[in-house]
Amino acid sequence: QVQVVESGGGLVQAGGSLRLSCTASGLTFDDYNMGWFRQAPGKEREGVSCISWNGGSTYYADSVKGRFTISRDNAKNTLYLQMNSLKPEDTAMYYCAAVRWVVTTCRPADFGFWGQGTQVTVSS
Q1: Which residues, given as ranges, of the chain have pLDDT below 50?
Q2: What is the distance of C-alpha 98 from the center of its chain?
Q3: Among residues 17, 18, 20, 15, which one has the least CA distance to residue 5?
Q4: Which pLDDT does position 15 carry in this prediction?
Q5: What dihedral do alpha carbons 109, 103, 51, 97 form, nearest 10°?
Q6: Distances in Å between the alpha carbon of 115 and those of 35, 36, 95, 98, 119?
């Protein structure tokens, strides 16, 4: 059975950095595109950043471009999100998700396997 587990969230001051990690098991990791999504209270879940199965293609939401970097290590079945220059508006539950490589969007509805999320809180 597929398991997706996020880690690395926490409380940080504005301007600080965090690195999220996500490990996936029960699937052939390099057959899957991966993504980071977030959901703040009262808001819809949104795509933050996605990466193709081989790391050759990435997507970033406009709100995080230049501040966040997505990467993956297929040998370790692990996805990362380096978050720099964090802002209070980045506060949300962050989720990792997987979708078969044939799907090239970064829309939450297209992703099939989800983790439980890790909370990121940025104080002003």
Answers
A1: none
A2: 10
A3: 20
A4: 98
A5: 40
A6: 11, 10, 6, 9, 12
